[in-house]
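Appendix B: complex inputs.
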Amino acid sequence: MNTRDAKEILLLYRGAIDDSDPQFRAALDYAKSDPELGQWLQEQTECYDTIRAKFRAIEPPLGLSETIVRKRPIPFPRDWSRIVQLAAAVLISASLTVLLMKSSERRHHSVVGAQEILVTGEVLDMTCYIANNLSGPAHAECARVCIRNGSPAGIKTQDGKVYLLTGEPGQSINAKLADYAAKIVTVKGRQTVRDGFTQLQVEEIRKL
Amino acid sequence: MSADLEFENLVKLYYRDLYRFGLSLTGNETDAADLTQETFYIWANKGHQLQKAASVKSWLFTTLHREFLKTCRHRNRFSHQPIDESAEDLPNVPANCAERVDSRTLFRILGEIAEDFRAPLVLYYMEDLSYKEIADVLALPLGTVQSRIARAKIQLLRRLNETNLPLEQAK
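Resulting structure:
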């Protein structure tokens, strides 16, 4: 390193704030051994301090901070994950409704050939379960209200299989199922599968 | 601490620095005040997304600069002097070179430097930001920022020297 190299590096040196920056270390050491460079560096640093002080002497207009605080917007809390979950829940509910209607239209074809089975598991509020993975005793009250108010209900077995629970075509069994929300029950019913959805048309419910 | 009080404290802490940065970019007090206000407006709406509390200052400066680029860049309030990209000789500048000019004159001289060079120079002089933070604020590589600061500083010091010369010498 020579004096010119050191000067080029130290041109950016601002004093204490840059002392820990390794890019200046060697040049600063070199300046200690070169009195002329040391003098130049001192003048540079003083000049920096003067210019900084002059820049910082500029004051904003009176009342600016008060105006900023007064005009602060109150942000609407947009929890996008919650919005997406709700949208998904609405979409799923709508899809299930359409499927139920289709199922109702084709009841003679669907249910006649259905297989009667026994399923044991937890009664689910499908909307909250699919959208938010909510189930179990902690969610029992919410599930009860949701099912009573018309949300689709389901049953989840111990091995993780989920069935959509329905009544006779055209008849809702939500009022009955709401009492079993989040409880473990055995359901006897007719199973039909279409487009990946498994439905269980309830014939009998037994609480364990 | 309530959100209102937190916001008020943040404004008190940074509005001066942001205003000065805005003034150096726009050369206009009204625009600088507007930019400062807009920056805090954006903070009020999006500030909660910031993960690290330590980066608030950089975030505010980055936002102000971005807003400036959106709205003010092409107005050409200043007649900018292009900076020669070739290596410049380092000036022999006396320590008292800036003592005889006032803050307004200093801002006027600063305003004659092209914006690309002016913004890093202002952050270099006015804010206690590291070079890495300055580079982040301006979304530039570290080497580019340092090179621009060095060239802009040389130009600023030269202009200050000229301003300090007696009139007949300056001619």
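Residues 74 and 117 of chain B are 15 Å apart (CA to CA).
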